[in-house]
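FIELD: query
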Amino acid sequence: MNKSTNILAIESSCDETSAAVISNTHVLSNIIASQAIHQYYGGVIPELASRAHQQKIIPVADEALKKAGISMHELDAIAFTRGPGLMGSLLVGVSFAKAFALALGLPLIEVNHMQAHVLAHFIRTKSALTGHENPVPEFPFLCLTVSGGHTQIVLVKSHLEMEVIGQTLDDAAGEAFDKAAKIMGLPYPGGPLIDKFAKEGNARSYPFPFPQMPGLDFSFSGLKTSFLYFIRDAKAKDELFIEKNKADICASIQYTIVEILLRKMKRAAAETGINTIALAGGVSANSGLRNAFLAMQEKEGWNVFIPAFEYCTDNAAMIAIAGHYKFLKGDFTTQGVTPLARMNL
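FIELD: result
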């Protein structure tokens, strides 16, 4: 392409209000406004999330354009998350994108949030050490997408052709982390705190059961129940059990969750014959999971790709890169588009 394609992207699927501007595959800005209010309730409250999005969407989009040095008249399209996610939160982002595009006469691009997590690998950034652009995975590759709401093994055939070959049949890995943290009395969001404390603990201190799921599918509900009973029984013997053994407990539950994910990925790689392996989604920021995947490069000969931390959790840059590839294909939507709480990959 001779001309750069500038896209403003909006992400509002849960409790992060985000806007980004991308020029071809290079991110010019990626603004994320978090919602601290949910910490008081130990989880995301949908009604409060949608209200916070309404307050933040315009300032965040304005800041994204200013930081990018792009005026709204230099934009070529508006991309937005259509789903999956919280309906109220999605509605704010979709409505804003539709109004913005209508006012400027710009095409609209709807994006699947889970597809965008995978495509975050194609955001081009330069290494501060070498000055070279980051490598991107070659097709086909396998991507483990793990977040608070989803756990999927995705066979990625091209930028816009993906197939889910394994997924959780109940709870997501991120939910298992947050639930374990809540059982321990850690504040929300608990997943990052488990990761923090796990670094000081012994991962083999407390063995937890591994679910016996056939094929490439996952299950985490049994592990959550087992962990609940373990903590209940231990506290019955010693009320200070958690405080005395916090690091070892966190290391043990983190090791179990990571090992469950890793075993399925090893099986998927063996069954498909694909050794290019990617990690995506909010839980891919977990250091235990990242280190385990990197270790598999030596053990299994995998070619591993992990996105930068800023592109792991919910952000508009990943929506923008997905929008870029859909723009090239001419895959646009209409003003009649509505958000979808559930949306297949």
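FIELD: remark
The domain at 6-125+312-329 is CATH 3.30.420.40 (Nucleotidyltransferase; domain 5).
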